[in-house]
Amino acid sequence: MGTLGNPAGTIAVLQKYGFNFQKKFGQNFLIDGRVLDRIIDAAEITEDDCVLEIGPGIGTMTQLLCERARHVVAVEIDSNLIPILEDTLSAYDNVTVLHGDILKVDIRDLVDTYNEGRPIKVVANLPYYITTPIIMGLFESHVPLLSITIMVQKEVADRMKEGPGSKEYGALSLAVQYYAEPKVMVHVPANCFIPRPNVDSTVIRLTRHPEPVVQVTDEKYLFAVIRASFNQRRKTLANGLTNAGNLGVTRELVQETLEEMGLSATVRGEQLSLEQFAALSNLLYARVHGK
Ligand code: SAM
């Protein structure tokens, strides 16, 4: 049983250490035991798992993870939290706390050291401004991982899970769905945190596809095509691709390719599925590279 997932437990620890919240690190600590249990359940942690927790704070969720997992590696940027974590996690011998910025840590090295290179599960309640770079960094670098269970701003969860035709559908939806299956797990109101954030949150689990769901000649080219297609949201996809400048395509080539795919010259990015983006990017790539 964790001891911190309630207002009194958290306040006692904060007072004991005279802790001051740092806005720049996006510190909002969870104080609701039921929400914490639901996050841990959502992550489907088993006693075989090695879990990477990003941003443990005072160790509220870390305690619960330690009770379920074989090993927990927790990476925290704020040096003032390190002595607190040593205290709140002193009852557990299956946790490693590392002081550092997750965007600079060699996560593959952590996977090798703490899980012999086998896939890990990632759990995180992070500042919202680094959520996307962290998720994309983890996926794009192909670090061995099974899932990422992460607290995000409600709107970001919507963008990750939507498909064609929705106004939330865009480059983030496609990037996430290329690598993983998103599932919204828990809605978390602002009053479940100290201090209270200005927005409501959602926990989303991204389960990595065991096999790629689409075949792509060049991943980087696919993502460049996707970004260009959504760059100018109110313009046609053909304009977006032609104006991008980094795809090596002419307007004629784009139009020919759309026609070959049975798509209208005025089609917009938000109408295409991941499968269609993959086919489009493969065709353009082949033509640009003369293959
Ligand atoms: N997990 C705790 C909880 O749920 O109560 C704390 C969540 S708080 C929203 C985010 C945590 O991430 C803070 O402890 C903050 O210091 C830490 N953090 C922020 N940026 C970080 C980074 N780049 N690398 C590692 N930790 C970071």
Question: Could you characterize the architecture of this molecule?
Answer:
The chain has 12 helices and 9 strands. The protein is an alpha/beta fold and 291 residues long. The protein has 2 domains: 7-208, 3-Layer(aba) Sandwich (Rossmann fold); 219-289, rRNA adenine dimethylase, C-terminal domain (Helicase, Ruva Protein, domain 3), CATH 1.10.8. The strands form 2 sheets. The protein has a 7-stranded mixed β-sheet, sandwiched between helices. Strands 1-8 form a two-stranded antiparallel ribbon. Strand 5 (120-125), helix 6 (131-140) and strand 6 form a beta-alpha-beta unit. The radius of gyration is 21 Å and the shape is elongated. The chain starts with 6 loop residues before the first helix and ends with a helix. Bound molecules: S-adenosylmethionine. S-adenosylmethionine is lined by residues 25-30, 54-57, 60-61, 75-78, 81, 101-103, 125-127, 130.
